[in-house]
Fold this protein.
Amino acid sequence: MLFCFGLYGVLAKKNAIAVLMSLELMLNAVNINLVAFNHFLYNQTYDFNGVKHAILTGHVSALFVIVVAAAEVAVGLALVITIYRNRLSTDIDELDWLKW
Amino acid sequence: MNYALLAPEITLAIVAVVILAIGLMIPKGPHKGMVPLTILGLLLTMGVTGGQFAANVHGTFLNGMYYADNYASFFKLLFLTAALLVVLSSTEYVQKLPAHRGEFYALILFAALGMMIMAGSGDLITLYIGLETMTISFYVLVAYLTEDGKSSEAGLKYLILGAVSSAVLLYGISFVYGLTGSTVIAEVASSLGSSISPAIILALVMVLVGFAFKISLIPFHMWAPDIYEGAPTPVTAYLAVASKAAGFAALTRVFLIGFQQQVYGGSPEVVLAVLIAVTMIAGNLMAIPQKSFKRMMAYSSIAQAGYLAIGLLAGDQAGVKAVLFYAMIYVFANMGAFTVATLIANAQGSDQIKDFAGLARRSPFAAAVMLISLLSLAGIPPLAGFVGKFYLFSAVINQGWVSLAYIGFVMSMVSVYYYLSVVKTMYMEPGEGLPKIGLGGASKFTLFVTMIVTLFIGIYPTPLAQMAISAAKSLIR
């Protein structure tokens, strides 16, 4: 559901910042998926020298996704600022110097 | 843990960080010393990778999360070659940039590092990290001309579409994890077995869509022409050859190791075949009316992705070998064409096809290299492209897809038309009043190398074919 909200936002929003926010929604949907699968389906442990450790593949993957998403949005915002300087607008519909 | 397996990645990471640091430290200026330094670093990494390839290293790192095999090494050599040619051909272009010249090379190296991780990854999350290392570097490279509105527009478009496609890919990966409890590709395969359920199909489709964006299969190609047109010309070349090959490297490993039993022999195979057919037909047809050289090459590269995916569809050793072989010669052919386009863009500040008028008189050597590169892309014997297409089509015919090979053959004939229209402009039109094109040492060297390799492999393909076979064998036994 959250993923679909995000996808709708990316497709329908006019402001570049809102599009970036919708992107975050999509990535967070992935994170929730990963963490929930790990917690509810694969809540296993393994023995290492007699000590029990939880297997946290999903949690760790979610951490990686968060870091990458942060890097992505940093570049995205920088680009939005560059475009704003060039044409004083962050409206996606005005990005028509290159025809689709 | 055997860190020696990671030697190429570690070398390149160190080189890239050093180049970045040097680029920031030295005072503003033409930054001439950066080029030899970058080339030296790339050659060093190539040496390490080549050593691994020659020694036929075959190992895994962290319980199958990372592979160092000949398949990965072959692709690593391909990415490094592409990076090397891009650095060489962009030397004069970078001199003209208004600012930030030093970081350009560092970003190219970081993108190459991301691709190398993609080629070697045996884990879906590692693959994603490699993919994002590559694409985030590319977002910056595409938007490098901050003064040029077109470039930053292309950068933002690439960022939004690229991020959406990686989100779809990740959503697919999260489903795969939910279904199997693992993100390691080999474990996913053993856990799935030969079972097929709607959930598996959904995950598979999402993974395929995510990758189809990266390798620009139609209908997920919309970004390519815009981004190729807006990006600085050397970056366009790098994007067209290297990022596409990286997408294929990862997709082939995921499909052939992870989902082999789900993809082949079932409905996903048919979906892939339809995508390929549409890509080859529409890519070639849409290239015909283009007036901008870069846009034309964008559609041509979409069509080339269709040809490459044929080998993936074949899905056996011969198919993988054909993909590897074709990807390598595609690097040389495309780099030759784009180096000439970079020279034109440098001298005339534009990239329309009509700007190539009279190039045969203004710079006969550049025109000859362009001619050879374009004919190789079209697949005319005795050039390398013909041999590559021969391998691809024969691999897929052996798997019973004669109709696809037929479509590919007909569409290659169609592609000759738009490639030759550029040649006609170069050789037949006078091009009055256009400047002479001066060749710098670095671009002359790039053109020479691409021309020699394209001719040589076309006449004597055995060495590269042997390399491709040994790489394919390390993936499928």
